[in-house]
Amino acid sequence: MTATAFRISVPDDVLDDLRSRLVRTRFTTASDTTAWAAGVDPGQLRDLVDHWAHGFDWRAAEAALNTFPHYLAEIAGARVHFVHLRAERPAGTPAPLPLVLTHGWPSSFVEMLAVARRLADPVGHGADAADAFDVVVPSLPGFLYSEPVRGPFTRRRVAEVWHALMTGTLGYDRFGAFGGDIGGGVTQWLGALYPGEVTGIHITSAVVTTDFRDQPPTAEEQAYLDALAAYDATDGGYSEIMCTRPDTLAAALADSPAGLLAWIIDKYREWSDCGGDLESQWDRDTILTVATLYWVTGTIGSSFQQYYHYPLNRPVPAVTVPAAVTLSHEPAYAGLPRSLTERVLTDLRHWSTPGRGGHFMAHEEPEQVADELRTFFRPLRSDG
């Protein structure tokens, strides 16, 4: 399970084909007079597609991504892509703590890069050298440059692959884990399965157990669960089709970059802490970097696999390692009681509700996330 260096390099003909498709996009008309009421606003999509075709400089974005050290490794019969950023630390300072950061959907390793830089080089970002981390940022299986796992995509299976990456490929004896969305589920499974190697876990999308047989939900917990169900009724259409007809949707998105972009930005607007104004949180080139990576790797369809296989996931067992939650500021977690999380995270040492930073918190608020991670892991560095 050795790792080999890798650089992102998209052939010119792939970019030429992308541009040709973009300039020939056929746009729809809005179904509602209120922008975004029925999905992506056609006017805003048109503007983004025009910028993608005529203003976005992929080669500059590619060069910026390649300032990070990328690697590929074969684990359990599949290729895993990851960024491995080793700590910058002066001589005589403590050894860095290894930390794996896991993204979600419709995201990518790009979400974690700004946080990774801050964690690996604390002095360069105004923090203490003793808080340095060796940071590993993998691409989820089937996302971008990572191949799908063999067999079902479950959070537990990804945790098993990440454990092999951290301990087998990279040789770390102990490590911490952080993530949100799918990455949060993977992170919880890492803590549940490997308490001997996992120093602690930190999540932004808090788990809600579905097993209430032994202890029914309290009135506060039930109120939250009811509110979550009501929100899902208005937001869950995307999930239903990816869970039941992923290949039908993928056929359209793999052939239309504008359609792919619409599918992605619908969630970037809905789930991020942008107050409904997409470009108040996301600059165009950031959005288009993510969209281009999905397009050139042809992996939007394989990224749906974790939705199609979602029923195969089982509730996370009790996680006994030290845990932290920095709660995402998005509709799905509004009013979530700490007690629900404590049903699974039995040693919850850090609970924070900063009120900013949504589904893609590491991308939206990298300084906040870096500070939260340093704070939580600081007392754990000498444990074990």
Automatic annotation (TrEMBL):
Active site: 181 (nucleophile), 308 (proton donor), 359 (proton acceptor)
InterPro entries: AB_hydrolase_fold, Epox_hydrolase-like, Epoxide_hydro_N, Epoxide_hydrolase
BP terms from Gene Ontology: epoxide metabolic process
Keywords: Aromatic hydrocarbons catabolism, Hydrolase
Pfam families in UniProt: EHN
Domain Epoxide hydrolase N-terminal residue range list: 4-112
MF GO annotations: epoxide hydrolase activity
SUPFAM superfamilies given in the database record: alpha/beta-Hydrolases
Superkingdom in the source lineage: Bacteria
PANTHER family reported for this sequence: EPOXIDE HYDROLASE (PTHR21661:SF35), EPOXIDE HYDROLASE 1-RELATED (PTHR21661)
Family: Belongs to the peptidase S33 family.
Protein name: Pimeloyl-ACP methyl ester carboxylesterase
Upper classification of the organism: Bacteria, Bacillati, Actinomycetota, Actinomycetes, Micromonosporales
